[in-house]
Amino acid sequence: MVRVLRWLSALAVGGILSTFTFLLLTGRYINDGPVLITLSRSHGLHAGDLFVLAGWAVGMAALVLLARDRGRLHAP
Asked: Model's pTM, two decimal places?
């Protein structure tokens, strides 16, 4: 049961983290920075987006570590 709750928690946080990342990448905010890669006339990868992507990668890696069950966090 603990393993299922850990996975459900990880999936929920991963979904929320991915949604916020999507919103930040598709929206406009103050620290956009220069366009590094143009994807279309109105969209591109900005320097500020790299910070968002790095945060997403760190968050997802933390979730994988959380969801992995190695038996260390279980009570005896």
From this structure: 0.64
